[in-house]
Amino acid sequence: MASFARPSLLRQTLATTRSPLLRQNVGVSQVVAFHASARKQILPPLPQSIEGTMNDPVPVPSPHPMEGSYHWTFERAVCVGLIPLSIAPFAAGSLNPVMDAILCSLLVAHSHIGFQAAIIDYFRPQRVPKFYSLCNWLLRAFTLTTAVGLYEFETNDVGVTEALRRIWNA
Amino acid sequence: MQSMMRASPAAVALGQTMQKRPVTSNAEDPAQILVKQRLNRPVSPHLTIYRPQIGWIGSSLHRISGVALSGSLYLWATAYLASPALGWHLESASMVAAMGALPLAAKVFLKATLALPFTYHSFNGLRHLMWDLGRGLSNNVIIKSGWTVVGLSVTSALALAFL
Questions:
Q1: Least buried of A85, B8, B23, B101, by fewest C-beta within 10 Å?
Q2: Which of A166, A164, A146 shows the shortest CA–CA distance to A104?
Q3: CATH code for position B108
């Protein structure tokens, strides 16, 4: 077969095997509809504003000793501390009051840091500054009531791990 | 054309005979155009554009399970603190009695509902600590460890539920 015959032959083969949708003359409107995926707006965009001029860089937050590297290390230290304290009750049945109190303190710290991370991710201070600070104050209040509530439970009741053991065996 | 023909070469070279076309430019503030354009952006979280993969689904479940567990702890501890004022009974004895009064299926279901977020968050937390040490960060290992965590947490949660 002569080589010049191949391209046209190939084209014919392609034309017959192409899907009927592709063979149609696809208009511009259809192409646009194909490319633009449906908008699923979980959070509608808030009114936008530009700080300074259009070409200003994003401001870099000033460093703070409670944020960044120390915060990261503290977070990990709490997580690592939680590992033996969450394995021990399965081995020993329940914890003694001191270990139980340490577990509760670490759980409160871990929860507080975790909630803070979630709040700053979903309610960014640049986007919703008032709601962000409201959430943070709510979190502080709830962390306080949780800590006091757990202290009450530890002093007046059987302790968290022992209570869970009893509920599990009920 | 006539004027071009008549103009001297020097005048043409200096652009003195250039055609001028007065056009009214768009007087809109460029900053406002940008503001309007920003409203057309897809808003995060735009989850439907991603293919479901163990990496991001597992990561989302880590946060969801963590918030669920901590949220339960916060609500229960706060309710326990407020219980004398509200007349509720959240002390261990009455919780044990309430759990004991449930039929077996409800007990297993409740235990599984509590145990699965706990086991998943714990095992996936170990995975996160491994990443913090800079290990297991290749795509292959992330997929394998992700499914390992799913398997381990479901198995251990079922074991705890039937305990």
A1: B23
A2: A146
A3: 1.20.1300.10
- pTM to 2 decimals? 0.75
Residue A109 has pLDDT above 80, yes or no: yes
pLDDT at A7 over 90: no
B-chain residues near A45 (CB < 8 A):
38-39, 41, 43
User: Which domains does chain A carry?
Assistant: 70-169 (1.20.1300.10)
Q: At what angle do helices B92-100 and A160-169 cross, to 10 degrees?
A: 20
Tell me whether residues B39 and A49 touch, CB distance under 8 A.
Answer: no
Cβ-defined contact of A45 to B81 (cutoff 8 Å)? no
- Whether B46 is in a domain gets the answer no
Dihedral sign for Cα A160, B81, B71, A75, please.
negative
- Does residue B23 lie within any of the structural domains? no
Domain range enclosing B135: 51-161
Residue A64 known to bind ligand? no
* Record: contact B70-A79, CB cut-off 8 A: no
Residues, chain B: 163
- Which residues of chain B are within 8 Å of residue A38 when distances are taken between CB atoms? 48
